[in-house]
Amino acid sequence: MVFAPGEKPGNEPEEVKLQKASKQIVQNVILQAVQQVSQESQQREGRRGAKEGSFRLGVGELTKKHEKK
């Protein structure tokens, strides 16, 4: 195996460790962001439901109402 100047045979496992750690960090950040968006969405729905007396249109109902006009 040929190594570049300054590169040592033991660097490859360290690089793999860093890649795995980086991947884990990215996955954690994405998971946290998804959870935050989900919580904020649920909170908005809760506020909206309280304001509207828990009335919500089903999927496609708004479109159907506009088509009738």
From TrEMBL:
- Biased-composition ranges, Basic and acidic residues, are 42-54
Which portions of the sequence form the region Disordered? 38-69
Q: Name one Pfam family in it.
A: AKAP7_RIRII_bdg
Domain of life of the native organism: Eukaryota
Record-annotated A-kinase anchor protein 7 RI-RII subunit-binding domain positions? 12-45
InterPro entries, alphabetically? AKAP7_RI-RII-bd_dom (IPR019511)
Q: What is this protein's record name?
A: A-kinase anchor protein 7 RI-RII subunit-binding domain-containing protein
